[in-house]
Amino acid sequence: MDQPIVIEAIMGSQTDPTLAERLHDISHHGVVEVLFVEPADLPRRRFHSHTDRGTACFVSLPRATQLFDGAVLHLENDRAIILRVGQQNWLRLRPSDDGAMELGYLAGNLHWKVRFEEGCLMVALDRPVEEYRARLVDLQSAGKVSVVE
Amino acid sequence: MRKIGAARIGIGGPVGSGKTALVERLIPALHKRGVDLAVITNDLVTHEDAERLRRTNLLAPERILAVEAGACPHTVIREDPTLNMEAADSLDRDFPDLDLILIESGGDNLASTFSLDLVDYWLFVIDVAGGDDIPRKRGPGVIQSDLLVINKVDLAPYVGVTLAPMIREASAARAGRPVLCTNCRANEGIDAVADALCAAVLYQAA
User: Fold this and answer.
1) Rounded to whole angstroms, how far apart are CA atoms A120 and B127?
2) B116/A47 Cβ within 8 A
3) Residue B179: inside a domain, yes or no?
4) Which chain A residue has the Cα nearest residue B8?
5) How many other CB atoms are there within 10 angstroms of residue B71's CB atom?
6) Is B206 close to A56, i.e. CB distance below 8 A?
7) Among A7-11, A58-62, A140-144, B45-49, where is mean pLDDT lowest?
8) Residue B1 domain flag
9) CB contact under 8 A, B206 and A3
C-alpha cells in the first residue's frame, strides 16, 4: 500500500510571489496536483483524501490553521499539491416588507450560513437545494419570501 | 509525524440511543488497534456518564473528563463549544501521546450537530427502538453526520421494526454516506465502527 503524503502545515498561498515562481517551475518539469475540498468541509483539519492525480494525502493540521483556496500544501522538486475549494452555491432570497423578520428567524433557527446582499438574504448551500426550498414553502406561499435564484 | 494533538471525534444522538454504551465498547476496540485515547462526556447538570465510564475501569480516571452543558446539549458542541475545546486541550497537555479523544454529547434530539471547530469527524447514534421512521424524518444529525450508527438492532423484532428497509432509508436520506449497525450490549458491529473512525482521522497507509 502507498504511504499517504502527510500534510502538517500550509506553506503559503499559490499567489505568494516566491511560491508562485516555484509552482511555475514545477509545472514545467513536474506536476502540480490539486486536492479538492467541498466548501462545507473547509473547516476540517484532519482527514484523508486523494489529489486529482490519485496521490493519497493525510491532512493533519494544527487546530489554529485554516485551509483556504489556493493553499500550497506540499512542495518537492517535481511535485506540488495545492488546495482547491469547490464552488460555493448560494440561494438568493428576497423577503417582503413584512417577511424579513420571519426569514431571519427561520435562517437562524436552521443554522443556515448566510450573508446579506442588496436587500437579499444569501444562503450558502451545503446540501441539496431542495432541502432548503422545502423549508421555505410556507413563507413563499404566504408571499413573505421569494426565491430570486 | 509531528504530534499536534489528538484527533477529536464527536458522538451525538438522542437520549437513550446508546452513546455511552458505544463508547464503552469502542474503548477496548480502539486499544486493540493501538490507539491511545481519552474521553470527554457531556451531561446536563451531572457527571453521570463520566462516572459510569470510570466505574468500568476501561480507562484511567484522569483520561475521562466531564463537561456540564447546563442547558441545551447541542449548544456546547455547536454554537459555543469552548468548554469542550478547553477540556480537549487539557487532555492534549496532560497526555502528549494521545491519538484520539472521543467527545460524547449529552443526549439531544435529531437536530444536534457538531461544530467542525471542535471535532474532526462525528457520528450520530440512533436506535431501532426509537422507531424505524427516524431516518425518514431527516434530522440534521442523521443527514449531516460523517457516520450514522443504528444501535440496538437486536431489538428490531420486538419493536416492530424491519431492519433492512430502515437501513435503506437511512442510506438514501444520507445520499449513500456510511451507515453502520451495532448491538452494543453484545459487542456486535463495534469493530466496523472502530475501523471507520481510525480510517477517517488517524494516519495509516492508504
Assistant:
1) 41
2) no
3) yes
4) A46
5) 11
6) yes
7) B45-49
8) no
9) yes
- What's the pLDDT score for residue B37? 96
Contacts of A6 in chain B (CB under 8 A): 1, 203
- Hey, which residues 16-45 in chain A have their CB within 8 Å of chain B? 41, 43-45
Residues 98-137 of A with CB under 8 A from B: 111, 127-128, 131
Pairwise pLDDT comparison (A81 vs B110), residue with the higher score: A81
Phi-psi region of B82 (alpha: psi -120 to 50; beta: other; left: phi over 0): alpha
| Tally of domains in chain B | 1
B115 is in an annotated binding site: no
For position A1, what pLDDT does the model report?
56
Instruction: Evaluate whether residue B108 is within a structural domain.
Output: yes
Question: In whole angstroms, what is the distance from residue B201 CA to residue B199 CA?
Answer: 6
- Tell me the percentage of chain B whose pLDDT exceeds 70: 98
Cell numbers found for residue B23: 463508547
Residue A37 CA from chain centroid, whole number: 6
Buried b (16+ CB within 10 A) or exposed e, B168-201: ebbeebbeeebbbbbbbeeeebbebbbebbbebb
Q: What is the CATH number of the domain that holds B96?
A: 3.40.50.300
Of the candidates B202, B195, B194, B92, the one whose C-alpha atom is nearest the C-alpha of residue A58 is: B202
Q: How many CB atoms lie within 10 A of CB B60?
A: 10
Does position B206 have pLDDT exceeding 80, yes or no? Answer: no
B16 known member of a binding site: yes
Burial class, B55, CB count within 10 angstroms (exposed 0-12 / middle 13-18 / buried 19+): exposed
- The domain of B14 spans 7-200
Summarize the confidence of residues B92-104 as an average pLDDT.
96
Write the DSSP symbol of residue A108.
H
Domains and CATH numbers, chain A: 5-85 (2.60.260.20), 89-147 (3.30.70)
Closest CA relative to residue B38, chosen from B77, B79, B78, B96: B96
Chain A closest-CA separation from residue B158 CA (Å) = 33
* A chain contacts of residue B4, beta-carbon cutoff 8 Å: 8, 60-63
